[in-house]
Amino acid sequence: MGVQMFCTTRAGGVGSAPYENFNLGLGAGDIPEVVHKNRQILRGLLPADPVWLNQVHGIRVIDADDPAQCQEQGAAPRADASVTSQPGRVLAVLTADCLSVVIADDAGSVVGAAHAGWKGLAGGVLEAMFGQLLRKRQILGRSGVCNWRAWIGPGIGARAFQVGEDVRLAFGQDGDPSTGLFVVDPVELGKWRADLAGLAERRLLRLGIQQVERSDCCTVTDQTLDGAKKFFSYRRDRQTGRMATLVWLG
Asked: How does DSSP assign 15-65, residue by residue?
């Protein structure tokens, strides 16, 4: 068994400015009927309905194999990560500058997907998700040593991600100064340029995940061959849609 996954872009669906053309986020201010149409188009590419989350920049992780955790009062649960060990169960993460991070064991027996902006990373969303994955492997009787792999999806790049001192300090409170991942911004006093993907990679490596792949796509600056915006970016446009990262075992 393996891991199947992909990340959407702005292309492939329906919509009008500023959400053209494949907005999948219901909370972005777009017309709900248009978003549902795009989700129907997406569903045709998947083995099952995705497990959507109501993302809040926190560290809560749900077990997508537990139906009670997949809905709260008939709506998507307030969480920023989910895990599964069931083949064909599709995990979904919405982003528009924050990172999507996928972690799986080398046997393809468990997989998790997280929405990871700077708040989630600093708070420990990746560590929380990894802990859930370890517990699910134990339930499966796979508590022995294994190799882990992770993928870091498109997100705001280091050149575009300007932050204040509060963000830099948030990553130094756990004893990891993250040297080199924050660079003084020469344009504005008291500001820094932060490598969000680098911060995620460092945390993954500290968890003992041996293989980490980075897409290194920048949601703010990357363009298609004809010069169009490739990804949705909240930092760039403010009013914009959301891409989705989808992952499942199979």
From this structure: --TTSTTT---GGGSS-HHHHHHHHHHHHTTSSS-EE--B--SS--EEETT
Task: List domains and CATH numbers for the chain.
Answer: 3-156+212-249 (3.60.140.10)
Q: How far is CA 11 from the centre of its chain?
A: 19
Given a contact cutoff of 8 angstroms between Cβ atoms, the answer to whether 148 and 210 are in contact is yes
Q: Would the pTM count as exceeding 0.90?
A: yes
Return the DSSP state at 229: B
Peptide bond into 50 cis (omega under 30): no
Mean pLDDT, rounded, of the chain: 94
Q: Residue 45 pLDDT more than 90? A: yes
User: Which residue's structure tokens are 């870091």?
Assistant: 152
pLDDT in tens, 2-42: 999 999 999 999 999 999 999 999 999 999 999 999 999 99
Phi, psi dihedral angles at 94 (to 5 degrees): -100, 140
CA distances from 13 to 16, 22, 82, 150 (A): 10, 4, 25, 28
